[in-house]
Write a structure and sequence with these properties.
Elements: E1 16-26, E2 29-40, E3 43-48, H1 55-62, E4 70-75, E5 78-79, H2 84-87, E6 90-93, H3 105-115, H4 121-132, H5 147-159, E7 165-169, H6 177-192, E8 196-200, H7 204-207, E9 213-218, E10 221-227, H8 232-248
Helix pairs in contact: 3-4, 4-5
Length: 249
């Protein structure tokens, strides 16, 4: 007899995410060293730093794809040990968009809604297409879409299960101005809805005025943690320069 399909327990409804003194090593190389942060519901937190600073490693730890070597990550009262039930409360958009190019946008969204056991997968896909502004292209293959359109579908794929925490790794890469501004507006709407958003980005101009808090990393170490940073490009330059100077002192 074929066993019934697995059904995940209800996802966790947490109001904050905290990283406490987290380090992560890969053999002899330390990618993160004693990093701490806290993000609460309705907040957009930016992780900023040069290439190799540890941004993607930190996001992977928050997504429960990597375990910290030392330190602790908490999702409200839960921890990464909760496994699938916790991951059902997390949405991830990285460099790989995880879309099937031969399928239509609607078929992609229905598929991922089904993976998350949506009671009405077609309805969830229809609503997602409307949020993405792609109702008229919903039945076209994703392979025919521009990078910006694919990014919008992928974002809705990451949000199809209404996660409490959304993790974004360089979400503005390859987007034209219109698509980038549409993404900023979508993130602002998610903040108003109470989602916790944590993003890593090099696009300081688009992030300027968007972030409620910013964690600056350099060589895997915290360089600064600032609430509502303004003049972000100048602030970034000053923080990284000061961190380099202190490291060389």
């Amino acid at each position: 007899m074929t066993p019934p399909p697995a059904v995940f327990p209800p996802s966790f409804d947490f109001a904050f995410v905290s990283v406490e003194d987290v380090s992560r090593s890969f053999g002899r190389r330390r990618a993160l060293s004693r990093v701490s942060l806290r993000a609460t519901q309705g907040q957009i937190l930016g992780i900023l730093g040069p290439n190799g600073a540890g941004k993607s490693t930190l996001l992977a730890i928050l997504a429960t794809l990597l375990r910290p070597t030392t330190g602790r990550v908490a999702y409200g009262a839960a921890s990464e040990a909760q496994g699938p039930a916790l991951r059902a409360s997390i949405g991830v958009l990285g460099h790989d968009l995880f879309l099937y190019p031969e399928l239509t946008a609607r078929e992609n969204l229905e598929f991922f809604a089904g993976l998350h056991h949506a009671a009405d997968a077609p309805g969830a896909a229809r609503d997602a297409l409307a949020r993405a502004g792609l109702e008229e292209r919903g039945d076209d293959a994703v392979s025919t879409f521009s990078r910006g359109m694919r990014q919008r579908v992928a974002l809705e794929r990451a949000l199809i299960h209404r996660p409490r925490l959304l993790l974004l790794d360089e979400p503005f890469t390859g987007l034209d101005e219109g698509s980038a501004l549409a993404l900023v507006a979508r993130l602002q709407a998610l903040r108003e809805a109470g989602t916790i958003v944590i993003l890593a980005t090099h696009d300081l101009d688009l992030a300027d005025g968007l972030l409620d808090h910013a964690l600056f990393l350099r060589d895997g170490r915290p360089a600064a943690s600032l609430p509502r940073p303004d003049h972000l490009r100048a602030t970034y330059r000053d923080v990284i320069a000061r961190s380099r100077s202190e490291a060389g002192a």
